[in-house]
Design goal:
The chain is an alpha+beta fold and 437 residues long. The chain is built from nine helices and six strands; from the N terminus they run αβααββααβααββαα. A four-stranded antiparallel β-sheet has the order 2-3-5-6, with no helix packed on it. It has a two-stranded parallel ribbon with strand order 1-4. The chain is elongated, with a radius of gyration of 39 Å.
């Protein structure tokens, strides 16, 4: 009997231990489900981030929808090239002192615009230019998307390295504090040494908290672009040291002159020409061919011809209207304005490319200096640590050496990030397919 009771208790204990493992399967509908562990989320690459951003970013989707809308307007501009078919019906009831009566009128008409002085052709061309500009705006929006994603991706990647570096700083400061405390216990160091090391340790802890918070914000920025929950955290597959062979400056100049802003400015000149053609069309006649069928019934006096059919040509020509002369003058001036704006766009764009290219050169040179500074700071710290440990140095020199090393390492991370960001800015400014990945 005791053996049976013992066996039952063992079975109950085993079942109780298994309950948490099946708790998720047995949870009622609508119960919160724990988020998957970051370990099971595949590392995010830059290409993946760009693809996700293109699928989720509203401003890019809006630009694409704008193209669909403008394309419909472009197709609508074909309307004046086709005949127009109209149907009309009218019923009237007349109340007179002699007799009340009613009339009914039905009409079918077919008309075609033979000549309008070039108005429909100009409107069609304007619609095409508007469509081209909106398509170019999609390209421009895509460049902005690339730049935003690259900036957020590499900033998060650099922030991860910074958090790792801040943890190293905390470990170094902890080691310095423990050495100072140990020497103080043996009576070979002063209390001020311990306090100096303690202040540096607390500062390292403070810096680590700040870096971890900045990392969370960096991931929020990236998640907002790629369409993931803002609080998501995962690994990033990338490096702050890409292998890049920078083309010559001339390459970026040539690419910039084919950028969407330049092409849109050129289209603005063509649009001004078509607006000028629109105004010019008002100086020419309007010729329309028309055929109609008309049926009338009712009334006091019945018509002898209830059914009527007719066809004809109508020509309308405005001989004089003062405003169109000034509108034509304004249209010619607008064309000159568009030409000047094109020159200004090119001037600003080439200047921006030149400055961005110089920033890349500067940031590239800074990386080499930052690496050398880290090496020297490491040697300085090792020397100060060894001297203080054997009693030949003071705590102030050790704390300063560790601080200099921490700053040098952080400066190297910043220099590498600035190099990548300057490359991305150069690509966005020049609008070139060359990539810094």
């Amino acid at each position: 009997m005791l053996l049976f009771i013992h066996t039952v208790l063992l079975v109950l204990a085993s079942a109780t231990a298994l309950i948490p493992a099946f708790a998720l399967d047995a949870s009622p509908e609508g119960a919160p489900v724990p988020a998957p562990s970051p370990a099971f989320v595949a590392p995010l690459t830059l290409d993946d981030a760009i693809t996700l951003a293109a699928e989720h970013l509203p401003f890019y989707q809006a630009a694409r929808l704008r193209v669909a809308s403008t394309e419909a307007l472009y197709n609508a501009a074909l309307g004046p090239y086709f005949p127009r078919f109209d149907a009309a019906a009218a019923y009237r009831r007349f109340y007179t002192s002699a007799e009340d009566f009613d009339t009914r009128n039905y009409e079918l008409s077919l008309s075609y615009l033979l000549y309008d002085g070039g108005e429909r052709r100009a409107n069609r061309t304007l619609a095409r230019l508007n469509l081209e500009n909106d398509r170019l705006e999609v390209r421009n929006t895509l460049l902005e998307l690339y730049y935003a994603v690259r900036t957020a991706f590499y900033t998060a990647l650099a922030q991860q390295e910074l958090v790792t570096q801040r943890r190293v700083q905390r470990g170094d400061a902890q080691t310095d504090y423990e050495v100072a405390q140990g020497r103080y216990k043996f009576g070979v160091a002063r209390l001020s040494d311990v306090l100096q090391a303690s202040v540096r340790l607390e500062q390292a802890r403070f810096n680590l908290i700040q870096a971890e918070g900045d990392l969370v914000k960096a991931f929020s920025d990236l998640n907002s672009l790629v369409g993931r929950p803002l609080e998501s955290s995962y690994a990033l597959a990338g490096t702050l040291d890409p292998e890049v062979k920078l083309p010559e400056l001339r390459y970026f100049y040539e690419a910039a002159l084919d950028k969407p802003e330049v092409l849109q400015a050129e289209n603005d000149i063509r649009r001004a020409e078509q607006n000028q053609a629109l105004v010019r069309s008002t100086f020419k006649p309007l010729v329309t061919a028309e055929a109609a069928y008309q049926r009338t019934s009712g009334g006091i006096f019945r018509t002898s011809f209830p059914d009527q059919r007719f066809a004809g040509l109508t020509a309308t020509w405005n001989i004089f209207e003062l405003g169109k002369f000034f509108r034509y003058k304004s249209a010619r001036i607008e064309k000159d304005i568009a030409a000047q704006q094109l020159s200004e766009v090119k001037r600003q764009l080439l200047l921006a490319v030149n400055r961005a290219y110089e920033d890349v050169q500067i940031s590239s040179n800074q990386i080499g200096v930052a690496r050398q500074q880290v090496k020297q700071a490491e040697q300085n710290y090792e020397q100060a640590y060894g001297e203080y440990k054997v009693g030949k140095g003071d705590i102030l020199s050790l704390v300063q050496a560790e601080s200099f090393l921490a700053e040098a390492r952080e400066q190297l991370i910043t220099a590498r990030l600035n190099f990548i960001l300057s490359l991305s800015l150069l690509q966005r400014t020049a609008g070139t397919p060359w990539t810094s990945r």
